[in-house]
Specification:
With 397 residues, the chain is an alpha/beta fold. The chain has 17 helices and 13 strands.
């Protein structure tokens, strides 16, 4: 495996100090790493996008390994629901910018690592400049707009993109690097999925230890690329099933017709994927409006309830979610069962649909309208918006 093009003059500039020799003793005793490898780690720079479930183990292990410069991009704040998996943060950090609590944790792990803190979104406008100073990019996000954008930037700047994703009990890892002979993410998935088609981790859930496993594998691939050791995941994707404890490997091939890394690319500059994908900003944001779907606000829902209006409030979440919290008077039919249970809904009757934050409600409204139901509306923001704006006693999850 070829080394990353790290400036050798930086590697050779300074010998390891006595404290460094003591700190990295277990690395130095590995013949394949040794002092030269440790100096390569010190001279390397990595941009990690996201300080959440994946970004936590990624950055913690890279800092501990002695990677000299770590850039961290995140503009979110710590929420209590993060703490089940985002081990960079603690309960006392709730409400703080993730970038701040992450920096405290990483500096405690290794104060000698340079941290570049980017409290901003990774967007078409900001991404090229954010990525440019670093040797490789690690995707620690959970949304498609950032995933596609980080891929495209990595292709254009000829930097490996260490990819990871998680869902419930499963995860997958790969390294996308067309300049090293492998495919890019778009070779597999040329276009983003339609809004709401693929559930987010907030919507579908994730077992807390799974991002720890996947993020650790991403960190391992980054270290291997820096050291030029072993067989990288360029051209391969590994899928992990935590319930069966099974790893499966898939060979990946570069697509000559890929719109980004192909022979005749059709996408040659950053795209505003939030608009391009039509993807809401996230389950936790309370977003979920769709231009094609009629919506009502939670305030309008409350007004209907106050005046005793005749309507059906349809909850399309899962039973496990309904057990956590519910809006009074709602009727549960999970989205996956809705097609087979349409006969349970009154015809010619106003139906207000809600889910957790909007996307599943959007899909349900489209399904109902396609099946001939007329007065159907999605409750924007779902039960999260209800908990934030109407009834704060309703727990958010």
């Amino acid at each position: 495996m070829a080394n990353l093009p790290i400036d050798q003059s930086q590697v050779d500039a300074t010998p390891l100090s006595s404290p460094e020799i003591q700190r990295y003793a277990r690395h130095l005793s590995i013949p394949e790493v040794g002092p030269e490898g440790q100096k390569r780690l010190r001279a390397a720079s990595i941009l990690c996008i996201g300080a959440g479930g994946l970004g936590s183990p990624i950055t913690m292990y890279l800092a501990a390994a002695g990677v000299g410069r770590i850039g961290l991009v995140d503009f979110d704040k710590v929420d209590l629901s993060n703490l089940q998996r985002q081990i960079l943060h603690g309960e006392s950090d709730t409400g703080r910018p993730k970038i701040e609590s992450a920096a405290e944790t990483l500096r405690e792990i290794n104060p000698h690592v340079r941290l570049d803190l980017h409290d901003t979104a990774f967007t078409a406008e900001s991404a090229p400049a954010l990525a440019e100073p670093y040797d490789l990019i690690i995707d620690g996000t959970d949304n498609f707009p950032t995933r596609y954008l980080s891929n495209d930037i990595a292709v254009w700047q000829k930097k490996p993109n260490v990819y990871g994703s998680i869902f419930r009990f499963e995860g997958q890892v790969s390294v996308f690097a067309p300049h090293l002979g492998g495919p890019c993410y778009r070779c597999l998935f040329p276009e983003p999925p339609k809004p709401g088609l693929v559930p987010s981790c907030a919507e579908g859930g994730v077992l807390g230890v799974v991002p720890g496993i996947v993020g650790s594998l991403q960190a391992l691939e980054a270290v291997k690329l820096i050291l030029g050791l072993g067989d990288s995941l360029v051209g391969r994707l590994v899928h992990f099933d935590g319930l069966k404890f099974r790893f499966r490997e898939f060979k990946l091939r570069r697509d000559p017709d890929c719109p980004v890394c192909g022979e005749k690319p059709s996408i040659t500059e950053p795209v505003d994927y939030e608009a391009f994908c039509g993807v809401p900003s996230g389950e936790s944001s309370g977003a979920g409006k769709d231009a094609e779907v009629p919506c009502v606000s939670v305030q309008e829902l409350q007004q209907r309830m106050d005046r005793g209006a005749n309507f059906t409030l349809l909850d399309v979440r899962e039973e496990s979610e309904y057990a956590i919290c519910r809006i009074p008077g709602s009727r549960l039919i999970p989205l996956g069962e809705l097609e087979s249970r349409l006969h349970e809904l009154p015809e010619g009757h106003e139906i207000l649909v809600h889910c957790k934050a909007g996307p599943r409600g959007t899909k349900a409204v489209k399904l109902l309208k396609d099946r001939g139901f007329g007065q159907v509306y999605n409750v924007s923001g779902g039960i999260l918006a209800w908990a934030e704006e109407i009834d704060t006693s309703v727990p958010k999850y």
